[in-house]
Design the sequence.
């Protein structure tokens, strides 16, 4: 589509991630490669912080502590102390991964370094598979949390409230649970892929100066999307676990 | 009509019409939040997170339209 805009050759934009090479029977796409990079970066960062772990924090440790404490307080304020402690690791992992992945996409080289006309690096969240995997994990664990906290009976009872309208309400409840998968994954994917397309188009049209404004906007959206994903997952967890306390 | 043209037209309409509702929603959300902050400036910190979540939910509708439009442009129309 954008192969030639204003006479400038540019790599094709495609919805799906492009295959780079095969690792045995598994194709390795450019989003998987970038996901590995993000993972390596996060692991290296964590190890670097842990190696110089001290009571009086250094610069790096202070930043990490501020980030983790902010999210921890946010999660606890939504779900309460008990549930918050248990789901915090998952929420924090999702938040850090999404944020790092979104901000990695603004590094030079993303979408511009190509190999056989295929960009080597592509933002991980601009692949529906990545966001769908995260949404599936979240929604599945929300159901598990619902069963653990309310018992299998209480969990199933939630689907037939009010009991008089059970045949009508059950499908609606089930669809509303399933729609969380769609809304979580499509929102993140649409935002990041849309942002990527916009950045590409702007780069082709105005190569200097103006893309900077859009990149600032993109970095803001990257943060907001990470916050929204984390907060919404937390809210789903609190919805599936909190009814327990109101019933008694 | 040529499928490619039809797909592009569909994408344009999906995005154009689909952004009207979320635009209203986001505007209303922010205006009410600003009003609340104006009445009670100390509540600004407490209002911020629910506002962002609400905006995210409203914006999601436009993002669905964006996904549909992008699908039509890059995949649809053969």
Sequence:
């Amino acid at each position: 589509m954008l192969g030639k805009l204003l006479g400038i050759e540019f790599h094709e934009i495609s919805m799906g991630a492009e295959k780079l090479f095969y690792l045995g029977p598994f194709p390795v796409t450019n989003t998987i490669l970038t996901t590995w990079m993000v993972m390596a970066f996060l692991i290296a960062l964590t190890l670097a912080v842990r190696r110089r772990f001290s009571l009086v924090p250094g610069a790096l440790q202070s930043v990490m502590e501020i980030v983790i404490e902010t999210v921890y307080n946010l999660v606890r304020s939504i779900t309460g102390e008990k549930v918050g402690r248990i789901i915090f690791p998952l929420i924090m992992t999702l938040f850090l991964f999404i944020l790092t992945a979104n901000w990695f996409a603004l590094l030079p080289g993303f979408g511009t370094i190509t190999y056989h006309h295929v960009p080597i690096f592509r933002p991980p969240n601009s692949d529906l598979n990545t966001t769908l995997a995260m949404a599936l994990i979240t929604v599945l664990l929300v159901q598990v949390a619902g069963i653990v906290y309310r018992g299998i009976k209480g969990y199933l009872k939630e689907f037939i409230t009010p009991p008089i309208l059970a045949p009508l309400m059950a499908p609606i409840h089930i669809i509303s649970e399933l729609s969380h998968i769609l809304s979580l994954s499509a929102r993140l994917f649409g935002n990041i892929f849309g942002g990527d397309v916009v950045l590409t188009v702007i780069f082709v049209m105005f190569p200097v100066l103006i893309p900077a404004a859009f990149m600032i906007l993109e970095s803001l959206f990257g943060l907001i999307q990470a916050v929204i994903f984390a907060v919404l997952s937390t809210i789903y967890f609190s919805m599936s676990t909190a009814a327990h306390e109101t019933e008694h | 009509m040529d499928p490619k043209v039809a797909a592009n037209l569909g994408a344009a309409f999906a995005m154009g019409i689909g952004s009207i509702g979320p635009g209203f929603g986001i505007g209303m959300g922010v205006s009410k939040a600003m009003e609340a902050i104006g009445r009670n400036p100390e509540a600004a910190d407490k209002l911020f997170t629910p506002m962002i979540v609400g905006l995210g939910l409203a914006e999601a509708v436009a993002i669905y339209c964006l996904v549909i439009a992008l699908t039509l442009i890059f995949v649809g129309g053969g």
User: Anything to note?
Assistant: The helical segments of chain A are 30-51, 59-79, 81-104, 128-157, 166-205, 210-247. The two ends of chain A are 59 Å apart (CA to CA). The CA atoms of residues 110 and 121 of chain A lie 5 Å apart.
